[in-house]
Amino acid sequence: MECRENCGACCIVPSISSAIPGLPNGKVAGERCIHLQDDYCCAIFTHPERPLVCAGFKAEKLFCGSKQSDAFKILSDLEGIEVVPGI
Description:
This protein is mostly helical. It has helices spanning 52-56, 61-64, 68-79.
């Protein structure tokens, strides 16, 4: 499965405990990553400083569903929080 355009759920919903450029302590669940652009693309996607946890995430129907709202619901359930699209 290819990453869905205009989604960004994986850059918002999960917590990231490793350092991210500009976020030395990572980010909390539900917080929009500072590198997620308005078009929902990652500004550091091709950069070597992109965290391994981000590089290791692969878009799969199991986590991303069929649409953005599915991805937010599935990932939110896995994190144990409620986050809705539009953040």
